[in-house]
Design goal:
The protein has 539 residues and is α/β, with parallel strands linked by helices. The chain contains 19 helices and 16 strands. The protein has an eight-stranded mixed β-sheet with strand order 1-8-7-3-4-5-6-2. Strands 9-10-11-12-13-14-15-16 form an eight-stranded parallel β-barrel. The protein is globular, with a radius of gyration of 26 Å. The chain starts with a strand and ends with a helix.
Length: 539
């Protein structure tokens, strides 16, 4: 039995088999060989393995995303059997007497370059496919295990760290807990763990090379410990504790269908934060009054190109229809900082949290922004939609946004495309926005306070830097004073104010938020019933 400590981002307890996620990004090294026939046999084995993998991916995609989208894996199967491509690999092995991994990598680079230089757009697109299949072959040759997270048994995911694009692609039903070597309590992995109501520990000093898939592990978010190969006695104790926690959750179910109201009759809107369409189930399951934050940027992550207007429209429409007439607040894309998508070509920045991100991208690249706005306005016909703009620092920015919205509205009218004009609000997540909230309240419909970034910017602390977790104090008087000021300024001009940051779920502050007069709290779905219970206990 081995114990390791870390930092808890969700206080739950789980036990199950491990799945280790390793980055297969080590460079391919050129090696001298003596037996080219043996290398060709290795290539043959890797090819058969790749065909099997691609077949499984095709079948899975066919079920989940339809024939048209699954066709890419058929293309990959054809490319991997291309005679010229395979001849190039064999020639490199036999003439240069080099290892198969190097020969495949060279062939992949050469063919990708050829395709990229063609005039036909379809053929140009095949360059990325060639690189993909070459990487697949190299991984197979290197013995890198390909883990299909959709086909695993419910498991504890162990990794060095996880990016938002990696976490968003996981089958959430198959994850018992997260354990990462690096990361921050305010990372998006942490936020996802809280959304999914699963234990998660970060900053655990593990050597991933020594951990075998399937090893039984306990993740204890309460004691902030990870236990590998627990004894029978420890396992029995954990099973009993899991049952105890489940019983608490069952009792909490009594809160479903109850009003979110204090004993004195003060009502609050209690909504949920989500990151994808699939999270709506968690919202309904936990009886949230609406969606206070739909992070639309997750539509942009984990892909190679911008989502089309139609893709976005269908996603927003589905959420709105599923929520019926309950309010759905969709935040426009908040790409940048720790949420990166290569195809945006944002480049490297010394301080991305203060850089080219969120609304700044939208106000510089109108085509991206207008595509999303068209999808939102079209979708608003199907439910109770509100749009929320992130990273606002000035009245001028809001005026620029409204001008672009007017352009979009005009385009839809001219084309006779049905739409409605939703409420438009802003996130208060910069000290600048908080300090001029009296001016902003006069031109927007609502405020939603993003406490994660507001804390980061007010305290001058990088919330992604694990070394600074001890200095990151969201209860700081400056933060609470800003929340109070923003709320008062909203009410002064007849607007509502809420919190959609992680602080909204802080049960130690619930009474303070009620006292301040906040109108709404939007929290992780797993926290909705806990917050409701706390509010109903207040006088």
């Amino acid at each position: 039995m081995l114990k390791f400590s870390g930092k808890s981002v969700y206080k739950g307890i789980a036990m199950g088999g491990v799945v280790v996620l390793k980055k297969n990004d080590s460079p391919v090294v050129r090696g001298r060989i003596e037996d080219p026939d043996a290398e060709m046999e290795r290539v043959k084995t890797a090819l058969e393995q790749a065909k099997e993998q691609l077949g499984k991916l095709y079948d899975k995609a066919l079920k989940e995303v339809g024939e048209e989208n699954a066709a890419i894996f058929e293309v990959h199967q054809m490319l991997i059997e291309d005679e010229d491509y395979l001849e190039s690999i064999e020639n490199t092995i036999r003439t240069e007497m080099v290892n198969a991994e190097f020969a495949v990598a060279v062939a992949g680079d050469n063919f990708a370059e050829i395709f990229a230089g063609m005039e036909d757009e379809y053929m140009q697109a095949r360059a990325a496919d060639i690189k993909d299949i070459s990487n697949r072959l190299v991984n197979n040759l290197c013995g890198n295990e390909e883990i299909d997270l959709s086909s695993i048994e419910p498991s504890v995911i162990v990794a060095d760290d996880l990016t938002p694009s990696e976490t968003v692609q996981m089958d959430k039903e198959k994850i018992l807990a997260f354990v990462t070597v690096h990361g921050s309590t305010n990372s998006h992995t942490a936020i996802l763990a809280r959304t999914m109501n699963i234990p998660a520990l970060i900053g655990v000093p593990l050597d991933l090379e020594t951990i075998h898939n399937g090893t039984v592990v306990v993740v204890d978010g309460f004691s902030e410990e990870v236990i590998f190969d627990p004894t029978e006695e420890v396992s029995a104790e954990v099973v009993a504790r899991i049952e105890e926690e489940n019983e608490k959750l069952r009792l909490l179910q009594n809160m479903k269908g109850q009003e979110t109201v204090t004993k004195s009759g003060r009502k609050m809107n209690l909504y949920a934060n989500i990151g994808s369409v699939s999270d709506v189930g968690y919202v309904l399951e936990n009886d949230a009054g609406g969606i206070g934050l739909f992070r639309s940027e997750f539509l942009y992550l984990g892909r190679d190109d911008f989502p089309t207007e139609e893709e976005q429209f269908q996603a927003y429409k589905q959420v709105l229809q599923t929520m019926a007439e309950k309010k759905v607040i969709i935040r426009t894309l908040d790409i940048g900082a720790d949420k990166q998508a290569d195809y945006f070509n944002l480049g490297n920045e010394d301080n991305p949290a203060l850089g080219y991100r969120a609304i700044r991208i939208c106000l510089k690249q109108h085509d991206i922004f207008k595509t999303q706005l068209r999808a939102l306005l079209r979708a608003s016909v199907y439910g109770n939609l509100a749009i929320m703009y992130p990273m606002i620092t000035s009245v001028n920015e809001v005026e620029q946004i409204y001008a672009i919205v007017k352009e979009v509205e005009k385009e839809l009218m001219e084309k006779e495309i049905p739409y409605t004009m939703p409420e438009q609000g802003i996130m208060i997540e910069t000290p600048a926005a908080a300090l001029i909230s009296d001016e902003l309240a006069q031109i927007v419909d609502f405020f939603s306070i993003g406490t994660n970034d507001l804390t980061q910017y007010t305290l001058a602390i990088d919330r992604q830097n694990a070394k600074l977790d001890d200095f990151y104090n969201p209860h700081h008087k400056a933060i609470l004073k800003m929340i109070q000021m923003v709320t008062e300024n909203a009410h002064k001009y007849g607007k509502w104010a809420g919190i959609c940051g992680e602080l909204g779920a802080d049960l130690e502050l619930t009474e303070e938020f009620v006292r301040m007069g906040l109108d709404e709290l939007s929290v992780s779905p797993s926290m909705v019933l806990k917050v409701r219970k706390r509010i109903r206990e207040l006088d």
